[in-house]
Structure formats: C-alpha cells, structure tokens
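Annex B.
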Amino acid sequence: MSLTPSNHIKAGTKAPDFKLMDTITDHLITLEEVKGERGTVIMFICNHCPFVKHVNEEIVHIANEYRQLGFGFAGIMSNDVKSYPQDSPEKMKEHAAKHQYSFPYLFDGTQEIARAYDAACTPDFYLFDADLKLIYHGQLDDSRPGNGIHSNGRDLREAMDAVLNNRKVSPDQKPSIGCNIKWKE
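Thioredoxin family protein: predicted structure tokens.
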C-alpha cells in the first residue's frame, strides 16, 4: 500500500464543475445536480484501494445521515481502468450496489476532473459550502487499515457539523492518506 497524502488546496477555492457518467444510473450527472442546500461533499474513491475499503461503511453512514440535513454527495473514480480493471464502470456499478451507495458514483475516464480538483489519493474528501467554495479538504478520520482505530468519520463530521451550527470550519485539517490515483501514462 502506498501512503499518498492529499494535496493542500486553498480554502475558498470554487468547486470545479463536472458532467460525469453515474455508473449506478447510467446517466450524466453535473455538480449542480449533486449540490446540497447546506454544502457538498465530493469524494475521490475507488473499488480496490484498501484505504477506501476500510472506510466504505462509514462513508455510506455519513452520506445517509447528512443528506437528510441538506448536504449533497458524490463519489468520483478517476483511476486508469486499463491498468486497474477492478475499477471499471461495470465493477463500480456492482461495488455501489454491494455497499448500498446512496450517492452518485461517477466515472472520470479522462481524469480531467481529478486534475481539476488536484486530487492525489483515494480516499480524498472535499467539503464545499452552499456557494461551492472549499471549506474542508482532508481526512475522514484517524483510522487507517491495520492501525486499530475504528472509522467514525470524525474530521469530516466535525466540518459538516460546524456548517449546521453556523460555526467556522476549523482551519486545522489533516490531509487524507491513501493510495495514489492511478494516472494514465
């Protein structure tokens, strides 16, 4: 397992727009369509990464809980599927069904969206406010495969709770750690 940290991105950065295929519904989905009234969480995830597998259940819990509170969610998979066929759109659809994703699981086959977001790893979490300006970019929580810490989504939950309680999101944000995005050559 590689240990790739997320890149530092300046708070206030506007969310790059996208129009990607949702592997669950086979429809094109835009950022505007996933945008939440209170905020929007964009997650760069994939099927095969052990770091994503470790937090998958908690990602689903958070999405199910916070969507009801006005947050939008989308998972984006940007890996090179020629080198990693387990991340293909067909496998993404199976993976989303198996894990009961309640959010779009979008295929970024050109990798343009990962580059626009300056995504580096899976998982990589971005929280944007109601105006689609970045207010949190970091880890889900302190858990990692094999470190004995149960995934509870604390860091991302605290940022969303700050939004819900009209508080400023803490600027103290730990980078996410995971597998590097598998870039095309």
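Strands lie at 4-5, 19-22, 27-30, 39-44, 71-77, 105-107, 121-122, 124-129, 134-138, 177-180. The domain at 3-180 is CATH 3.40.30.10 (Glutaredoxin). Further annotation is deferred to the next reporting cycle.
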